[in-house]
């Protein structure tokens, strides 16, 4: 059960962080911030 909760929480954070970063850096910063974020998560 804890594993599923952790996975869900991680997915939620990633899903909510990806659009925010893309919107915040809609230029040369978008791909640079999206790449490391997706890899780190």
Overview of this protein structure:
The protein has 41 residues and is mainly α. The protein has one domain (2-40). Helix content is 85%, strand content 0%. It contains two helices and no strands. It has helices at residues 2-24, 29-40. Helix 1 (2-24) packs antiparallel against helix 2. It is elongated, with a radius of gyration of 12 Å. It starts with a helix and ends with a helix. The mean pLDDT is 56.
Which whole number gives the mean pLDDT?
A: 56
How many helix segments?
A: 2
Count of separate structural domains: 1
Rg calculated over all Cα atoms: 12 Å
SS content category:
mainly alpha
The major beta sheet can be summarized as:
none
Q: What is the percentage of strand-forming residues?
A: under 5%
The percent of residues in helical segments reads: over 70%
SSE sequence, one letter per element: HH
Shape: elongated
Give the tally of β-strands. Answer: 0
Low-confidence stretches: none
Q: What is the terminal separation in angstroms? A: 20 Å
SSE inventory with pairings:
Elements: H1 2-24, H2 29-40
Helix pairs in contact: 1-2
Question: What features would you highlight for this structure?
Answer:
41 residues, mainly alpha
